[in-house]
Amino acid sequence: MSLILVAVFAAAAHGQAVAPLPTDKKVSDSYIYLLSRLLVLNQQQADFDSGFKWNQLVHRKVGDVAWPNPNLDVAYSEAWVAIDDKSCALVSVPKVKDRYYTVQFLNGWGETVANINERVYPQHPDGEFAVCLKGADIQLPKTTQRVDVSTTSLRVLSRVELGANRDEAVALQKRFNIHASGHPVVPEVPATVRFDIEKLPGVEAFESATLALDSAADTNPGMEKLQASTRAIARAIKEPGARQHVDQVIHQQAIPSIYKASPTLGDGTVKNGWAVPSTIGVYGSNWLLRTLVNLGGIWANTYEEVIYYKGFVDPDGKPLNGDRAYALRFEKDQLPSLYATHFWSVIAVDAVHRRVLPNPLKRYLLNNFSKLTYGEDGSLTLYFGATKPKGAPDGNWIPTPKGTGYSLTFRFYRPKGAVADRTYFPPGLKAQ
After folding, report:
1. Helix (H, G, I), strand (E, B), or coil: what is residue 96?
2. CB-based contacts of 385: which residues, under 8 Å, 6+ apart?
3. Which DSSP category does 336 fall into?
4. 3-state secondary structure (DSSP) of residue 169
5. I need a surface site. Which of 20, 90, 178, 330 has the fewest CB within 10 A?
6. Which helix (H) or strand (E) holds 27?
7. Closest to 130 in 3D by CA, of 118, 119, 116, 120
8. How many other CB atoms are found less than 10 A from the CB of residue 37?
9. Which residues are registered as beta bridge partners of 327?
10. Stretch (H or E) spanning 227
11. Around 12, how many Cα atoms within 13 Å sit in the side-chain half-sphere?
12. What local confidence, expressed as pLDDT, does residue 18 receive?
């Protein structure tokens, strides 16, 4: 008999009316579901602790690596935006030529709700935009492009491809701007449980459940039962026996399930040691994948903008580690540049905090703007190892310190061809 049932029967014996908790599986599922929102809130609180202000864009220093899973291919800026039925977020976008750019908006669950760029608005690729609450009756200048969203609180990431001319990219980055059109009601940042991703929260996650769920609606289909069970568990843990059992289920079932699902991205497709998710940026009913992405690389964009391949294991199926060296060879007719409209890159980050791997060269990724050396036959080989493998061109190598577990992320920005239709996979790593 589970501790939950013991607690229920004990309470009943004392004349207390206690509703039975969901099954252990539902406790585990509810935790994983809730964690998606808590990860966003954890980051939101960290952002405001670091000095973020509502409706103000923070221009990140190019090349700064002081946060998880940095995108070192772009100059990017970030903000938290508040809008309401009387105020929009006004976005100024400079004219950008021959390089990738986008202004991405996400909701409180880490889902992409809008992008501003030439792909989405080919007739209005730059100039003035107004991000407004759907249905809000707000008069805007005729030259302003309206963008409707269904939430009043948004996370924003503006990205400009660095390319070969970084100074030009930085100048463009600083010309992106956001401000409120009026005086929107600014929400209080929810004070939910804080945690390091190395040590995910236990039962205390459910102490924050009501605040987390009430502060941002999950509009994805079929989430009602998970929301109801999450709220039920939040009420039930006030009883000590139930609290103890829920914590046990979290640590023995839920968290191990998360790490077990990570290498395959849940229901993702794996080939050549690379995993590609079944969807990205917008998750529908796939709440497991949403949590996995928020944990492993928060603020993912949609397939139309970028496709991500994740590499977690070596040719023997063991986790990637700096104790070994690997080579990644692309034949001439399979070069990554053939599948990206703008650029491709591969980055190595540690397996726990998703931070770049420290090395004397301060080289954390390779992309099509790196000083790469191609083979005489037109092939390209990239290398990963604590020391440069014999015969490897220096510019083709990412140093991976010994004793460090890590993962690889391959990005294709504005994917095309076989990457766009997800039939392409990078070749497998070869041990050196």
Report:
1. coil
2. 322, 324, 325, 326, 397, 399, 400, 432
3. G
4. helix
5. 20
6. helix 24-49
7. 116
8. 27
9. 383, 430
10. helix 224-236
11. 9
12. 54
Which tokens hold the place of 171? Answer: 């100048």
Strand stretches in 36-126, DSSP E? 58-59, 74-82, 89-93, 101-106, 112-116
Q: What is the pLDDT along the chain (432 residues), one digit of tens a residue?
A: 444 444 444 444 444 555 677 799 999 999 999 999 999 999 999 999 999 999 999 999 998 887 777 889 999 999 999 999 999 999 999 999 999 999 999 999 999 999 999 999 999 999 999 999 999 999 999 999 999 999 999 999 999 999 999 999 999 999 999 999 999 999 999 999 999 988 999 999 999 999 999 999 999 999 999 999 999 999 999 999 999 999 999 999 999 999 999 999 999 999 999 999 999 999 999 999 999 999 988 999 999 999 999 999 998 999 999 999 999 999 999 999 999 999 999 999 998 888 899 999 999 999 999 999 999 999 999 999 999 999 999 999 999 999 999 999 999 999 999 999 999 999 999 999
Residues forming a β-bridge with 311: 274, 408
Contacts of 198 (CB under 8 A, 6+ apart): 352, 353
User: CB under 8 Å to 258, separation ≥6 — which residues?
Assistant: 32, 35, 200, 291, 292, 295
- CA distance to 35, 226, 309, 344, 419, per residue, from 415 (Å): 30, 34, 12, 9, 6
**CB of 349 within 8 A of CB of 357?**
yes
Rounded to 10 degrees, what is the CA torsion of 420, 69, 321, 194? -130
Residue 244 CB: number of other CB atoms within 10 A? 15
DSSP 8-class letter at 353? T
Residue 19, burial from CB neighbour count under 10 angstroms (0-12, 13-18, 19+): exposed
3-state secondary structure 392-421: CCHHHEEECCCCCEEEEEEEEEEECHHHHC
Could you tell me the two tokens for 30? 């509810």
Going along the chain from its start, the domains and CATH numbers come out as 3-44+190-262 (no CATH), 58-180 (2.60.40.1610), 265-431 (2.60.120.600)
Spell out the residues 6+ positions from residue 247 whose beta carbon is closer than 8 angstroms to its own: 202, 203
Query: Residue 81 is encoded by which pair of tokens?
Result: 């935006």
